[in-house]
Write a structure and sequence with these properties.
The complex is a heterodimer of chains A (725) and B (159).
Chain A lengths: L1 E5 L2 E5 L5 H7 L23 E4 L6 E2 L10 E3 L3 H15 L12 H7 L1 H5 L16 H8 L23 E3 L9 H9 L5 E4 L6 E4 L15 H5 L5 E3 L10 E6 L8 E7 L2 E7 L6 H11 L9 E4 L2 E4 L2 H14 L4 E5 L5 H12 L3 E5 L21 E4 L3 H4 L1 H9 L7 E4 L5 H5 L2 E3 L6 H9 L12 H11 L4 E5 L13 E5 L6 H7 L2 E2 H5 L6 E5 L11 E6 L9 E4 L8 E4 L5 E4 L12 H12 L29 E6 L4 E2 L2 E2 H4 L1 H6 L4 E4 L1 H7 L6 E5 L4 E8 L7 E5 L10 E7 L3
Parallel strand pairs in A: 1-5, 15-16, 15-23, 16-22, 17-18, 17-20, 18-19, 20-21, 23-24, 24-25, 28-34, 31-33
Antiparallel strand pairs in A: 1-2, 3-4, 3-5, 6-9, 7-8, 10-11, 11-12, 13-14, 13-25, 26-27, 28-35, 29-30, 32-33, 32-35
Helix pairs in contact in A: 9-18, 10-18, 14-15
Chain B lengths: L8 H11 L9 H12 L4 H11 L3 H10 L11 E6 L2 H5 L2 H12 L5 E2 L5 E6 L11 E3 L2 E3 L4 H11 L1
Parallel strand pairs in B: 1-3
Antiparallel strand pairs in B: 1-4, 2-3, 4-5
Classes of the chains: A alpha/beta (725), B alpha+beta (159).
The structure holds iron/sulfur cluster (4 copies) and FE2/S2 (inorganic) cluster (2 copies).
GO molecular function (chain B): 2 iron, 2 sulfur cluster binding; metal ion binding; NADH dehydrogenase activity
Family (chain B): Belongs to the complex I 24 kDa subunit family.
Protein name (chain B): NADH dehydrogenase
């Protein structure tokens, strides 16, 4: 423990803390700009200057470690002058007219300025107005005028990337965005470029963020104290009335997220305790208030679709369920709350229908906790693009590790993660399990994986007896015997696994192939249909691709209280941030209403439930008629019945999942061009997609993302036909 | 990638060997860039990319350094690089005039390269040799008490 005095207050603090940290721990305010608690000290803005007894001149408190007997002053008049001077200099290159305007208090109320001051720049024209750290400091340091002429840099505003835009004319070079990108995300996308008055934040070679390894996590945007970086959607959302802590439901990791709410609308979301990914940071507000969202009940009457009141919609649903009693399939999405799942079990128990969900990739799930990863070890990633899909998990696991361990990717396709990996092993399709066997056990099996023996030996040497962590995509791997030193975690994209396994529901595919079923009740899911149904009841945020007769608008996860089970097997809470939009209602409410109105009939027995067995998909070899192997990848950018890229432009640019990845040689043979439509035909389905020609997939194999509404559920052999050239 | 700027094995080995002299790989960046500039006359973006891979750092980190130092060139420059000191002492002794004389003679402006790619003209702040003002630096070598006549001679010598 170290004892020091700050402004005559005796303070005790553990060794290694800076003077700024000591002051903050005791609520002593020191103005700062470049400091951010979760980033390394930088000492760039010079605002945090303090006086130390015995020191000749003031020093920056953010970089100065405390030592015993220190006597610190943080608030002398000289310091205030010094800080004011520093801030004036910083602001000489920042549009400052509004900051020092004597009418600024009344500006918003009376719009005085438009008539009186010739300004087109400044706080009133900045999305950061009211949330800006510069504004706070100008108030605090009582800056009334700035003795320097304004230098406007005249840089082009960078509006060409999805999710956020950058106006470096407002940048004060605090370096927070750069450090956030490097230290929090290890992404290294931005750095300062040039020097002196030319210094500007930028990417390598002037590439757009989309062309770099940017993950669009928004850590840089959140770090920026000014309006230089701003979110595209909702940047004019204003100052939030409240912040609500809840759990992001877009993927199974279920991060804690803060929703910024104003006038019963989610204007943006931000990380709470640990970083978010692009979906949680930029997707939530756009999802909740998506223009495609439907928030009123609709009913098909004859050939017309009419908006109705809840009573009528529920009544219609109940009547149909009665009519098709025992002939109804209830297909639900795993993206529901536990409460909604419980309500579904009730509904099934009332004997009106059978429950099913897409179980194709459900195999053994594993609970885990982050503590189990405390020991650094090499990370092996099998058939999953962990950097795109589970970046947050990787960051959390590696956060506590001092040393960098190798990242080994096993994948037949060259994913983003494969690009970043220390070693990329490209086994032949279907040989993944053999490769694991060769890597992890002393097997004397002949190596037919297509991966060179030397490479396997190199990787084995990396394990070095320390074991490894294996993250694998559960959908195309059954079971591999692994030694105890290897901790294996299947990465399921969807939550609630343990719950769903216990529900012992049917596989939705069996229901869809069951001819006796005439009515479908789709709760958050939109499967590809094999036959026509007499009635389809859809309960969701968006109209399902398969159409509907009764539509029941469900409230999104930002609008409900509840819980769901995350990838690690633990429960996460959902806290209602806003009232349900429009007439939408929580899923569990809708299902309970239906169940109550149906009335449980005495003595009804539910259909005998056998636990669904997962059939190991047989590897089918491409034939003359179906020469391509279609690999279906788990899609972590899908929520309920929609892929995020079909709802939001940014995701379409960043990660378009409506495309078929095909090797240039194959494309050439088919005379297929990048971005053109291609028809995929297999024994039992046909589908049109957009081709993405890339040499990151092997020839003879095409890749697509899991999409039940298009029938993309498991690997198949297919034929391709070019329908646009 | 432009084939001309692919680093050959020998160069790569030299760069890798450099890293042994420093406690971190990042620290080898400056000498590595010097080697590259010696070889190509400037630092091609392709080389930056390859250095980033060799040193296991992000390409932006290389960019940060190459854009920071004005003595690293991001595009091809003249064969001979002429720097004219433009600070007080030299200007009192006619440094400014020298700069204009050179500019006129080479028919370029400051920071430009002659069409034939032979000369690039720059100005530099004080080079620390005020007592022998005016000073110019040509390809790293100092020339003191420079006069227009001296420049004529020098340019003919350099061809
Ligand atoms: S960044 Fe801050 S100070 Fe600058 S214009 Fe925007 S709100 Fe005003
Ligand atoms: S969005 Fe994330 S990865 Fe991209 S530049 Fe910002 S911090 Fe870096
Ligand atoms: S963009 Fe924002 S965070 Fe980055 S250096 Fe400029 S002011 Fe700081
Ligand atoms: S990692 Fe998953 S839970 Fe976390 S923010 Fe992204 S989508 Fe949401
Ligand atoms: S906070 Fe200390 S120098 Fe910026
Ligand atoms: S001013 Fe030219 S060398 Fe000092």
């Amino acid at each position: 423990m170290i004892r020091l005095k700050i402004n005559d207050i005796p303070i005790e603090i553990e060794e290694g803390k800076t003077v700024l940290e000591a002051a903050r721990a005791h609520n002593i305010r020191i103005p700062t700009l470049c400091n951010q608690a979760d980033l390394a000290p930088y000492g760039g803005c010079r605002l945090c200057m303090v006086e130390i007894e015995g020191y000749q001149r003031p020093v920056t408190s953010c970089t100065l470690p405390c030592h015993d007997g220190m006597v610190v002053k943080t608030d002398s008049p000289q310091l205030k002058d010094l800080r004011r001077f520093t801030l004036e200099l910083i602001l000489s290159e920042h549009p400052y007219s509004c900051l020092i305007c004597d009418k600024k208090e009344d500006c918003a109320k009376f719009m005085l300025c438009i008539q009186k001051e010739p300004v087109t720049l400044g706080c009133k024209y900045c999305s950061k107005d009211g949330k800006c750290e510069l504004q706070v400091l100008v108030e605090e340091l009582e800056i009334k005028e700035i003795p320097y002429p304004l230098t406007y840099r005249g840089l082009e505003v960078e509006r060409w990337d999805p999710f956020f835009e950058r106006d470096y004319n407002l940048c004060i070079l605090c370096n927070r965005c750069v450090r956030a990108c490097n230290e929090i995300r290890h992404a290294g996308v931005i750095q300062f470029q040039y020097r002196g008055p030319d210094t500007v934040v930028g990417t390598a070679f002037g590439l757009t963020h989309l062309e770099t390894a940017c993950q669009f996590c928004g850590a840089c945007v959140d770090a920026c104290p000014t309006g230089a970086m701003s979110e595209r959607y909702g940047k004019w959302g204003g100052v939030p009335d409240k912040k609500v802590s809840t759990s992001c439901s877009f993927c199974s990791i279920a991060c804690e997220v803060l929703l910024n709410v104003r006038d019963n609308a989610v204007i943006s979301s931000e990380p709470e305790h640990h970083p978010l990914c692009v979906r949680g940071r930029f997707g939530i507000s756009q999802f909740v208030h998506n223009p495609k969202r439907v928030t009123e009940p609709f009913l098909k009457k004859g050939t017309r679709i009419v908006e109705v009141e809840w009573d009528e919609a529920l009544q219609a649903a109940v009547e149909k369920l009665r009519e098709f009693k025992g002939r109804t399939g209830i297909i639900f999405s795993p993206n529901l709350t536990v409460e909604a799942l419980d309500a579904l079990i009730e509904l099934e128990n009332s004997g009106f229908g059978i429950l099913g969900t897409s179980l194709d990739s459900l195999s053994a799930y594993a609970d885990f906790s982050l503590e189990q990863f405390s020991k650094p070890a090499p990370i092996v990633v099998l058939n999953t693009d962990i950097i795109d899909d589970f970046s947050v998990l990787m960051l959390q696991i590696r956060k506590s590790w001092k040393e960098k361990t190798p990242l080994i990717v096993i994948d037949s396709a060259q994913t983003k993660t494969a690009d970043k990996a220390d070693v990329w092993l490209q086994p032949k399709l279907g040989k993944e399990e053999d490769l694991l066997q060769l890597l992890f056990s002393e097997s004397d099996k002949r190596n037919t994986t297509g991966v060179a023996n030397e490479l396997i030996e190199t990787v084995k040497a990396m394990f070095n007896g320390n074991g490894a962590y294996l993250f694998y995509n559960p959908s195309n791997i059954a079971h591999v015997k692994l030694p105890g030193s290897v901790k294996a975690i299947p990465l399921f994209a969807r939550p609630n696994l343990s719950k769903i396994m216990n529900m012992q529901v049917q596989n939705s595919n069996d229901i869809l192939h069951d001819d006796s079923i005439d009515c479908l009740f789709l709760v958050g899911e939109s499967p590809s249909l094999k036959k026509t149904y007499k009635v389809i009841i859809a309960q969701d945020h968006f109209i399902p691709a398969c159409g509907y007769d009764i539509f029941l608008p469900a409230a999104t996860f930002a609008e409900v209280d509840g819980s769901f089970i995350a990838l690690d097997g633990k429960r996460r809470t959902l806290n209602k941030a806003i009232e349900p939009v429009g007439k939408s209602k929580p899923d569990d409410w809708i299902i309970k209403e239906i169940t109550n109105n149906l009335g449980v009939e005495a003595g009804t027995t539910t259909r005998a439930k056998e636990p669904t067995q997962k059939a190991t998909p047989k590897q089918v070899k491409p034939t003359g008629k179906y020469p391509f192997h279609l690999v279906v990848r788990e899609n972590n950018y899908r929520f309920r019945n929609k892929s995020l890229s079909s709802l939001m432009k940014g995701f379409k640019k960043f990660r378009n999942d409506d495309c078929l990845w095909i090797h240039p040689a194959d494309a050439e043979n088919l005379k297929l061009k990048d971005g053109k439509k291609v028809q995929i035909i297999s024994k039992d389905f046909s589908l049109t997609m957009t081709a993405k020609v890339t040499d990151s997939v092997p020839a003879g194999t095409v890749y697509a993302f899991h999409d039940p509404s298009a029938g993309l559920v498991m690997d198949k052999i297919v034929r391709l036909e070019c329908i646009e050239s | 990638m432009n084939e001309a700027f692919v680093l050959d094995e020998e160069l790569k080995n030299r760069l890798t060997a450099l890293t042994n002299d420093y406690s971190t790989k990042l620290a080898a960046l400056l000498p590595a860039l010097n080697i590259i500039q010696d070889k190509f006359g400037f630092i091609p973006p392709e080389a930056e990319q390859q250095i980033a891979e060799l040193l296991d750092i992000f390409p932006t980190q290389v960019r940060e350094v190459t854009t920071f130092y004005s003595l690293f060139y991001n595009a091809p420059v003249g064969h001979h690089k002429i720097y004219v000191c433009y600070n007080l002492s030299c200007c009192i002794e006619g440094g400014g005039k020298l700069l204009h004389y050179l500019a006129k003679k080479l028919r370029v402006s400051v920071n430009e390269t002659t069409r034939d790619g032979k000369f690039s003209l720059y100005r530099t702040p004080c080079t620390g040799a005020c007592e022998k003002a005016p000073v110019i630096i040509v390809n790293g070598a100092y020339h003191y008490n420079v006069t227009p006549e001296y420049i004529d001679e020098l340019l003919t010598k350099l061809g």
